[in-house]
Amino acid sequence: MKRVLAAPGLTLGLTLGLALGLVAGPAAAQKKPPVRGAPEKAAVPAKVVACGSLANLRILMAETGGDQTAIKARLADPKADHLGCARFGPDRIEGNAERVVIGGTAYDCLRVKESSLCRWALSGVPAEAP
Fold it and tell me: Residue 71: which of 88, 94, 91, 53 has the closest Cα?
């Protein structure tokens, strides 16, 4: 059986690097206090693309490559086929009615205010591994 010994300089370097990383880690995690007088930027929640049928959502994603800019442009074009899809703000979404996983991609059927039908959207929660 062979034993491999590290060079003394290498061992000291690894130990020193580890020690510095442990000391610098908590300091780097500390947040700076907000500057007085500067307004905090509120995070603007993004709109969710949802369709009346799961098949139409999958068609929209396939035809646009899932690119949010292309989807937004298509839904803004009055002459384009929207496939029954629209963008909804988070204030209109009441919750999740159903969830399905197809080919490793999770989809949620969202309850939307002023609608009796749920609308299909890509899930914000990743699909679980089998």
Answer: 88
